[in-house]
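Teaching note: in complex prediction, the entire set of molecules is handled at once rather than each chain in isolation. The prompt given to students was simply: 'Predict the structure of this complex.' The entities are:
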Amino acid sequence: MNKDKLILSVGTLNFLLPFGFIYNFIFLLLVLTFIGKEELEKNKIAGLIKLFFCVILFLLAVKGFISLNLLISIFVLYFLLKKKMYAGIGILLIFLETSLSQNLISYFLNSSAFPPIGLVIPNILLLVIYFLTIKKLIPLVFSLIILISITTLLFNFNIHIFYTAHIAALITLLSILLNIDDHDNKAEKKTSLLFIILSTISLITFIQFNVGIKDNFHYLLPSDDDSYEAKYFMNYYEALEFTGIKFENLLDINALADNSLILIPWVSNTDSNFVDQLNLLKNSNKKLTIIIAGEHTNYSGSRDLINGFVGKSVINDDLTVPRNNSDYSGFLRSIDFMDWPNKSVFNRGASTAVGFFDKTVLSGDLWFSEPNINEWLWVGDYKWQPTDKIGRIPLATLTKNNNLTYLIFGDNSFLLNTQIIADPNALIRAINLSSIVPFMIHDLIILLIIILSILTIDFSPIIVVTIFSVLSFQALKIESINVWRDFYNNQSGFDENNFNSKFLDIAKELDDYHIIRANYLNKDIFMKNNNAFIFGLVDSEFKFMDLEIKNCFRTGSLNYSNIRIMNGQFCKVKGDYIKIIGDDNKEFIFLYKHNNFNKIVILDRNFLSTKAPGINVDYIKKLILQIGLSKSNKPS
Amino acid sequence: MTLVNNQGFFFLTISLIGVSLAVSENNIYGFCIFAAALFQHTNYKTKEIFLALIIILVALFVGYEFLVILYPIFLFKKGYQIIAVNIAIGLIVIKYFLYLLALISDITINGTNISSILLILLPSLLVLILYEKKFRKEIASFYLYIFITFSLILFSNNWINPNIISSEFTRALILVIPTLVFINSGDIEPFKNKVAFKYKLILIFLVILISFFSFSNNKKYEEIVFDESHGNWASVNNNFNEGSFGRNYFYSYSILREFIERNYQTTSFNKEKDIVLNKNKSLLIIKMPIKQLGKSYIDKVSKWVSNGGHLLVISDHTNLYNSTFYLNELLDRFGIIISETAVFDKKGQPNKYTNSLTSFLFPSADSNIEKMEWLTGTSLKTFPANFIPLGTYNLSYSEDGDYSNPNRFGKFQPHLSLPLINHISFGKTNYKKGKVHILLDSTPWSNFSISKEMYKKYISNILIICETKLYDFRHYLLILMVVYLVFQLGFKSKKNYSFGLLLLLTYFLLSYITGNQMLQKLNFGTDYDTAVYSGKEVNYKFLNQLVPIGEVNFTRIVGSLNRNGLNPLIFDKKEKRLNLDESDKILAIQPTISQLPYTYEVIDYVKQGGSLTLLFSKSQSSNMQIKEWLSELGIYIREKSNYGFIESPRDEKDNLLSRDQTFAIKNINWLTYSSNNSLFKLQYMNNIIQSFIVRPINLPYEGGFLNISFSSDQFSDSVIGDIWEGIIPSNIAVQQERMLASLINGNFNINLTKKFISNNENKLNQFTKYGLFEDGRIILNGEFTESISDNFNPSKNIETYLFSLLNQAISFVNINCLDEPVLGECPSNYVSEDMLEWRIKFRKESNDITSIELIHQRDSNGLNYTYNIVYGK
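The expected output is the structure of the full assembly:
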């Protein structure tokens, strides 16, 4: 196989194979390598500059700032254009990344009652478009028969779905490679024109939604504090502060301004007041955007509530199960210009339904959906059966009704208070998506690249992506999520050493105090102009201004002076500080003032971890009460 | 032909990458790449294909390490003499000096540990050996790509996870992609002229010199001194006997001391001031101190070392009991700092690996050990420039301790921020005239695990290595090889490879002696007296959680043979065929038919006084081959069913309150009997084991014993409890331990425990108050009413149940416990009528029992919870 066909195959497999495995990364690396080699062999200086851009894009892609799928398609097209080979298929592969194409896949998957066909809908779409553009009907029919028959056979033999998906992808690729012709520029130009028209349609359909960055942010919760789920939305205001955006509790719908965003994270509680508020919202004539999240298998009537609220069927009565039944979403296909945060706790919810003019925002490859068997308390066995729907399952949908734009997620796990505190990035991304701009950038890039490809402007794809990535990165980044960055210690929301659950217990008392966590103390922590509780250890010794901490001794799992030292340290401290807890020579908790800001240092990484006892929380609360006292009044 | 020649450079590079992966990390994909490249490099000539085939097959069966010899031979044949020598040297030094990555193992960039990534990319350095001016562009592109890959991986942690980084396939792929893309053509000319090897005399002289050193320089230690002055963790002085139970005995080093005493004189001191270190030819062992080392003590020891003393320090994971802190205060004097970490493998399990027949080519303290298993040791943070690695854990993570957990273990979860490198497990540094050795795992040498072949060998090897200087020579030779290689790369000589060859041959000679000849086998009689063979599903794990589901753990029973007068050795290899010449006492646990010796050998063995104990599982009773094997001995199996009562849960909680009265069952056992015409005579039997003696039976009986059980599970940790059990053992554990040891020794007067079940004849009602605690939380308390009567069904009436338990306990105390030396405790546990085992504590005031506490330990005694029931007046 020559290099051109190899790269073409990489591009094709990138579209067909389940997204989110290491081979996607290797595909990107491989295409980058070949582009690099190609550029270096031709013109050294220009080649190096292009390579530099490619590496930057690569890094942006692997960090999630550019959709990795999109970038691979662009790199593949770039390479094929350079080699003047198979550019038509390269353009087709780019087109398949548009929101229109993704929506078609979801639409057909929802309509398909036969799981083997559901799995290979992307393959069918690719084959149909490809063979229609080259006008070869008999090979198309033949390829489809082979593809569907073998997939059905593999389903019948209960072959692991991962292998089935890969075999189906390889059959599709083979069908294309066997029917590939030497390039016909004329035909390719005609095809490209068709793709320009379709991509334009894909782009302009976004105009129906409320486009633009929102002015006001609200959240709406049921008022029932006694239900089981209430604890997940306790102190929600404080939890939302971790997004860096000021959310207000929505009390009066009539007072809402146009262009507001309303977050409705909890719909499994149908108290009458809440339902009334939803009805008011639904019937308001304001231009509003709503982020709403459902639950699996119509849990407590959540599906019915959302479908009634949106005015059409947008949430299915099923249970979505991520690959390996993971708690994390992993990598999802998206029509966003950026990748969805793969470490978001977005998992076992319901799949979403799409209308022809709606948009599928997120879809999970090799996720599957289990039907509701309508038995009380049964929430699925999380095991895939050949009768379960599987494939590119839609997980979030963008739709509208009157003046309301709805961004609907099938699962609300990432919106629970503890998860927002642990990692608010998924919610922040959802807020960004609610402006619709990221989707439009995504489709606009595709449109521009197809146009520029036809105009054969060299270097264009890379320039386009780079410009847009920088612009969108600047435009869409949330100003400050320092509260979270200070708090984040590379721990998931489920980590027993995370402070997320204990934080909720002290959130209201904290006032303007920040919680800062660090494995080891560093000067930046002390330099910040804020009052803070600093949790961390000292790596051999630490100096800041007149403060000197050294001769440390680690200890833990120890009751000491009305607290429990979890994973802590006693250190000798010098400087102008106030001892709070310690023995004669060494300190465990002390107060240090810098620029009139209080820094309460607690030499313990896990002092407020989930497994820490309640006495530690009580102690912090007591400490907060006494912080305002003068130096001589030391907390006991 | 031209095409093949033009690709010589490519084939050499790809085979070099492959062989380096195979040798340095045992990478199967690396080996496959090497094999494919080697075949391509043969130019399809029959002779060369044949040679390549031999190389591949030999390496496959004896070990990839052998490729450091075989591959250069192939290249020599092809005419690449200089490259061959340099590649061999390169492979050796790359593998050896990987330990240096530990020095940067703290550095992370963007949450990814640098040392882990460098370990993957380091083999690519070998490509420099093939450098020629004409390949400048290819090699530059190759390294540019390697550098970019390195950077990209560091910034791609969304996509890279620990599974990917540790996958052999990915590790190979990362190096193969740039080779395929950038180095795909170019030829390296073979060297036609022969070069005379100029150093024959020097080599012969070296052979003599090294042989002389290896056989004469071993000055045996006159004394091995144990420091017992810093706490009683792993004491060598604990008397591990049939009455000593609890982790303080099991997790001690008394058997280690006995093992060492077979070859060395040992002493110990209990106070710092009592330390006597007069003899230069002595080894001081300091192990896991749990008390701070005094400054004067540190001064004294470091001074002694600087004057020529040898020190061996044993440490454990995560600064347990602050032992690492205390040790570091001493080791800091020698430039060594131990980390507060625990080391585990890429799956989050304790490290284990298999050595090949050719592991001696890279000698270490485990070169002669086929399978080595570490039990979560720690790693080194810093070490001096002259540090010499003598053993590693192989590819492993090192994770910081979490002090909020009582055992200070972290999560044991592989993570990109953790270093995934070959952490050192054993090493040494020369300090002035003396030597400091450090061993970074303490658990394997404890009483419960020292019986394993691998650990006895390791300890034996450590002492040999401590005594020799040959490992120092090898270390300096390797440094010389690095210098030579650098010189070669800087001033490449096309003709002269003799000096390199001299270095190489010297290295192989030293390796053979240090990695093979010097290390000794274990001997029957001195190193063990009972050989233990194991079937496929038999385990000896120190934690029951590590035992695969469906398999069985026998750590406790075999470990307990030590306290019952035996000295067992567990062979590492499972399903090893029983060798009756190996020992006069043999224990085989769940042996398969292929392990069993011929029946005539068994008869001879027992006639000559041998003791053979076969513990089969219940399911093996249906194995036709085993039945036939037994019938050849005149022994047959018969079913025996017994009525029994067991405690039985009513629901999944399996707690005290959710059970009915005892549940009647019939227990089916398979017992063995001898036929009338058998040479064996049944001498002792009970429901789980039977013992036979061999005819003719003359008095005094001089023959041996054949013990057979088809209830091996009754000796497993699941039945008798694990090694971490407290000082009052469960009754069944004591019974089984003593019974097995007695039968192996041919002693049928088995000292069983006292009666199990009490009667409840004495109905007392002077206790009026009770409290029931579940896992330390009180769940029920109250007072007995006057009209209360016995009722043994807790789920129906807990109060009457507690009353019945009390009555039984008082009866048991009155009969069994009042004469005991430790007043207030019973010597054995009592089993209540509902078949639950209880430890009893009581208070007695002037012949009157005033309070009683019943304690039920979770798991070991049955229920899933620990219960304390307190009765008072």
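Point out the following to students. DSSP finds 24 helices and 31 strands in chain B. The radius of gyration of chain B is 32 Å.
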